[in-house]
Design a protein that fits this description.
Nuclear Transport Factor 2, Chain: A; 2 helices
Length: 95
Amino acid sequence: MLAIVLLAALLVAQTCGSANQEISQEEAVAIAIEAAGFEPCTRTQCRQVRALRQGIPSRLYWVVGLAENVAADGEPTGARTFLVDVNTGDVTESR
């Protein structure tokens, strides 16, 4: 019985903590663009944002993908991905 109560308390603590998002998707894109040092192309396919939980205890991140430029054939010439911490706005990883 005690294990069930502890498990329920852990789940509630995890879900309540994620409701306090400080950085929006738009802010995460702006932070990633600043970290990238280039202006991504303006097409909607050039900017992708997804939410991702990582770690123990889990933290919520925005995964922001930016395509650099589009060549004549319509393909991006380069792309980078950034992990933006939802609570702090820190870029923790770039690939």
